[in-house]
Amino acid sequence: MQEPVISVGIISSKKIKFLLDGDFRLGKSDKTVSGVFTAELKENKIFLTSSSIKESFADEIIFTPSDTVNETFTLQEVVIGVDFHWERKEKQSFKGELKLIIFENKLLAINLVKIENYLSSVISSEMSAKCSVELLKAHAVISRAWLLAQIELSKNYSESKEEYKTEIKTEDELIKWWDREEHKLFDVCADDHCQRYQGISKIFNENARIAVSETRGLVLTCEGKICDTRYYKACGGITEGFENVWQDKKYPYLLPVIDYKFAPDNYNVNFSQEANAVKWIKESPHAYCNTSDKKILAQILPDFDQETQDFYRWKVEYTQEEISKLIFERSGIDFGAIIDLIPMKRGASARIYKMKIVGSKKTLIVGKELLIRKILSKSHLYSSAIVIEKENVVDGVPMNFVIYGAGWGHGSGLCQIGAAVMSEKGFRFDEILSHYYKNSKLQKIY
User: Fold this and answer.
1) How would you classify the pairing of strands 5-13 and 188-189?
2) Is 442 part of any domain?
3) Could you tell me the residue range of the domain that residue 186 belongs to?
4) Is 192 inside a domain boundary?
5) Largest CA distance in the chain
């Protein structure tokens, strides 16, 4: 197998401004262009303008660099952290080809780039390249494996023409999950929906390049297939099974794992009993990801992620007016006054993946974990490992809700903060991987 070239969806807009820094071939012609450009969708055509060019294109344009090592392109106003609490726009630069296509009445900018160059950015965008080489190696392996597994999965769905469903809706239940198979025109997007990719703008130092170079072609495999190696920020003490986050499918390498070398004392982790979940979430059991070490966090989290300090255990409070309005706006369903929020099913990490919303007008069971997080927050709750307490109940209606939570993210696979602490304690990258992905092995595929 040769090193793959992948396609990454970067930005979608009616108008895209960009800079070509170097000589880029325009489409299939011999013409080379450089400088500042504006691409705009008009009359279902792409209108390209600069100080020296004014042309229209029917469906797509590709800009190919003459020198793939030194020449780059820069996109303006790239949105990062879509729908998250820290969403913002950035100017970002990239290596490889720039492809502009028309999709859903907008222009879509796609980066065609070799996977190893892509990975150097991903592990620097998901974390800080200031962290240890061992942690960056671990992340390079799982980012590579995850991407190749997704490409293979999409290929299999396409060839079989099997419909991939992400929603189950009945009169009593709404079960929905989000996965990257939604992308049909490119392999992955550049945001947290897939893997955070911010081009060469986020390759801070030599560690990222070393980590990718020294793990070139390495992936995790299980039973002869590349592992779908999911990851997130902090598990909260125990990782979650794949089936409770996405489709009802169990993977032998995405099983629940206690995030330490032994089980915590004085805790019963059978979270089917609600009292055990309450004790677990409202207290602070020992775990690799249970750290407030600013030195470690500064090494592994980009600046905007460091805006979040209470990722291991946290609390959110709502008034009745706030929560009823929020759930209506986020779900589109008028429940009336919110009477109760009842955990129906919890996973091994205490994350709720089925929750009953009891309102004065309607009652509905919702899931999975991300839908619960979306419904209970203006952006996303950090996780669905939550305990919900009602206060000031008047005529059966709570005037206040207090939500206690644990962890940050979906919880299945590698816990980034836990892995960072492990690396600081001297664990090698293969030991970190074997801790979070049981029943897997390292394999070089190119």
Assistant:
1) parallel
2) no
3) 5-211
4) yes
5) 77
CA distance readout (Å), 42 to 19, 38, 52, 59, 107? 21, 12, 20, 11, 10
Backbone angles phi, psi at 218, to 5 degrees: -85, 130
Residues 299-329 pLDDT 10s = 666 565 555 568 899 999 999 999 999 999 9
CA dist., res. 116 & res. 217, Å (int): 8
Rounded CA gap, 74 and 200, in Å?
A: 10
The closest of 125, 106, 126, 134 to 39, measured between CA atoms, is 106
Please list the ranges in the chain whose pLDDT falls under 70: 80-88, 126-127, 129, 160-162, 180-182, 202-205, 299-309
Asked if 149 and 227 touch (Cβ cutoff 8 Å), the reply is: yes
Measure Cα distances from 416 to 146, 202, 270, 300 in Å: 15, 18, 24, 8
CA R_g for the chain = 23
Domain count, the chain: 1
Residue 147 counted as domain residue: yes
What pTM did the predictor assign? 0.87
Strand order in the sheet with 225-226: 225-226, 218-222, 441-444
Cis peptide before 368 (omega within 30 of 0): yes
User: Is residue 316 within a helix (H) or strand (E), and if so which, with residue range?
Assistant: strand 313-319
Domain membership flag for residue 137: yes
